[in-house]
Write a structure and sequence with these properties.
- Helix 2 packs antiparallel against helix 7 and helix 3 runs antiparallel to helix 7.
- The strands form two sheets. A two-stranded antiparallel ribbon has the order 1-2.
- Strand 1 and strand 2 form a beta hairpin.
- The protein has twelve helices and four strands, in the order αββααββααααααααα.
- The radius of gyration is 37 Å and the shape is rod-shaped.
- It starts with 12 loop residues before the first helix and ends with a helix.
- The protein is mainly α.
């Protein structure tokens, strides 16, 4: 029997059986076709060692399974590309444009305030006398020289201070918006290149930074909009009773302030939509890589005996992949729970896309049903062969011969039967082989139920494969014991 090096190996049979006898192995009750069935959850291999036994896949079987897995991977890739091509550009452009518009609006505010200061250094503040500036009464401000001569009933100085402060904050927000827009535009260009090249890793690498920059643009636009509302009220107050020369300049300042609040009305929606698209692309990209790994395993070079040997993780990863698609993208009940739950990201996918993705999972079920059936068929035969070899050994040891009388033969057979029952390795092989057949039957039952039960079917096909690896490893040790002792 050809061995295949993988990243794991099953626990020794005696250890596994000890677990079974101690009750550590979980007994999971599942209801199928209105009946209660109990199945042992198999022990997964440890990492980093060689498998004792692996299931050989014959050359005539591999193309059928591989074709199904290729169809699944290609279908998932098509959905990924559709979202990437059609849903990543518009929202990013809105956010880039918002940052740039914010910068333009705040520069207009600065220009308008400077223009007002050129005509009236008092900025039309009621309570400030319009006297010729004297050296001893000058106040250096952001916008020029102002002569302060307030009446006690009018808080003109406080109003001016607030006005200057709000202008400073709004202009600083515009400058930040311009810098962030430049940064996001560059990231958008890189993302478009990655999408065009189908570089899943690069898309995943770029996405967090794009989302962070977009969030900062949204935050800056929101802060400027809040400051612009307060600044607008001050502008309205300061422009009252302005001279004819100042009316238009105050009106321009008012328009620029209003425009500074506009970008915030668009960034929130664009950020939510864009973040949703990038999150689903990262999720689908990771799942697509897992699907391609499964395809690669079935595309590997056969062993020296002409059969193909795949890692046990293929069955596990196919089940987890289907579960994650259901739970995180399609948002339907995915049956048996996988480890490492993550947030649902399917908001950005259309209903039609979700329907198409759900239909793809059936291809995985068909492929892994074939693999599970092959594993049970081959391993059951191997366990039977191990029984034959072990029985022959014990018959020889008990002195069996066709020349014995019936009474002596009966005693020999009783002794052989006891020896078989007391052989822990063989008992483990029989228990695992039976558990594999039960898991296969459960998988078929869920498969027959159709839509909504694909993940349960894949989970049980995965269990059948692991049970077979356990059974086969024990059977090979039994056979080796029978041959070499």
């Amino acid at each position: 029997m050809t061995r295949m090096r993988t990243s794991s190996m099953f626990l020794p049979c005696v250890y596994m059986l000890t677990i079974l006898l101690a009750g550590v192995v979980i007994l999971a009750a599942r209801t199928v076709a209105q009946a209660q069935d109990a199945t042992f959850i198999p022990v997964a291999p440890p990492e980093g060692v060689e498998l004792v036994y692996n299931i050989p896949l014959q050359p005539w079987l591999v193309p059928t399974v591989l074709d199904l897995k290729v169809q699944f991977a290609d279908g998932l890739s098509a959905e990924f590309n559709d979202i990437a091509d059609n849903q990543t550009g518009e929202d990013l452009s809105v956010l880039v444009g918002a940052g740039r518009e914010l910068s333009v609006a705040t520069m207009r505010i600065r220009a308008a305030v400077d223009a007002i200061g050129e005509l009236d250094v008092t900025f039309g503040i009621e309570g400030i006398s319009r006297i010729i500036p004297a050296e001893s009464a000058l106040r250096d401000t952001l916008f020029g020289f102002v002569v302060w001569h307030e009446f006690s009933s009018t808080p003109a100085r406080g109003m001016m201070t607030r006005f200057e402060s709000r202008v400073d904050r709004v202009i600083a927000g515009g400058e930040a918006g311009a810098d962030l827009a430049t940064e996001l535009a560059a990231a958008q260009e890189h993302l478009e290149q990655a999408v065009a090249q189908g570089d899943l890793g690069r898309i995943a690498e770029l996405s967090p930074g794009i989302i962070e920059t977009s969030e900062r643009i949204d935050a800056v636009c929101g802060a400027v909009a809040a400051g612009a509302r307060d600044l607008g009220a001050l502008v309205d107050s300061l422009s009252v009773d302005s001279t004819e020369l100042l009316v238009e300049r105050w009106a321009e300042a008012s328009r620029a302030v209003a425009d500074a609040g506009e970008p915030a009305q668009r960034t929130g929606t664009a950020l939510e939509s864009m973040s949703g698209v990038l999150h689903i692309l990262v999720e689908l990209g990771g799942l697509l890589e897992a699907a391609v790994t499964s395809v690669d395993a079935l595309s590997a070079t056969p062993g020296a005996d002409g059969n193909l040997y795949i890692p046990w993780t293929v069955m596990r990863d196919d089940w987890v992949l289907a579960h994650d698609l259901k739970e995180r993208v399609i948002a339907e009940s995915a049956g048996q729970t996988a480890e490492g739950e993550h947030e649902y990201v399917g908001h950005a996918a259309t209903g039609q896309a979700k329907t198409r993705i759900a239909a793809l999972v059936v291809l995985q079920v068909e492929a892994n049903a074939i693999l599970a059936e092959r594993s049970v068929e081959h391993t059951s035969a191997l366990v039977a062969e191990a029984r034959d070899a072990l029985e022959e050994r014990h018959l020889d040891r008990a002195g069996h011969s066709d020349d014995l009388n019936d009474n002596r033969k009966a005693k020999v057979f009783e002794q052989v039967d006891r020896d078989l029952r007391e052989n822990m390795e063989f008992a483990s092989a029989r228990i695992s082989a039976r558990a594999a057949r039960v898991a296969l039957a459960l998988g078929r039952a869920y498969d027959a139920r159709g839509v909504g039960y694909e993940v349960d079917a894949l989970y049980n096909y995965h269990n059948a494969w692991l049970h077979c690896l356990n059974a086969g490893a024990s059977a090979m040790r039994v056979t080796g014991e029978a041959w070499y002792r």
